[in-house]
Amino acid sequence: xxxxxxxxxxxxxxxxxxxxxxxxxxxxxxxxxxxxxxxxxxxxxxxxxxxxxxxxxxxxxxxxxxxxxxxxxxxxxxxxxxxxxxxxxxxxxxxxxxxxxxxxxxxxxxxxxxxxxxxxxxxxxxxx
Length: 128
Description:
Blueprint: E1 7-10, H1 14-24, E2 31-34, H2 37-47, E3 51-55, H3 63-72, E4 81-85, H4 88-91, E5 103-106, H5 111-127
Parallel strand pairs: 1-2, 1-3, 3-4, 4-5
Helix pairs in contact: 1-5, 2-3
């Protein structure tokens, strides 16, 4: 996976976007942000990010709808998607509608742990 592909962070809460963005910067990639699923789809189609961090609950289009659209499109279906959620049921494996997600992260999250998880997701692509 080329190192020029950005990371996309999608969350309607500015402070969550900012913390996630700051935690991704050490990975050496551009970081793009969006505030809802519709913006995320537009950016994903245009920029082809290496990974998308996607909030579960958002206005306009929520994470479940955005994930379904991302995974149903040939141009974005192979992008790993990490779901952010403050809802504990996702962390407990109750994720109907999110089966195609690569990873689930419960809010609040540890920035360093999030970075490690994203780096781990990207490593197989880097060695391929």
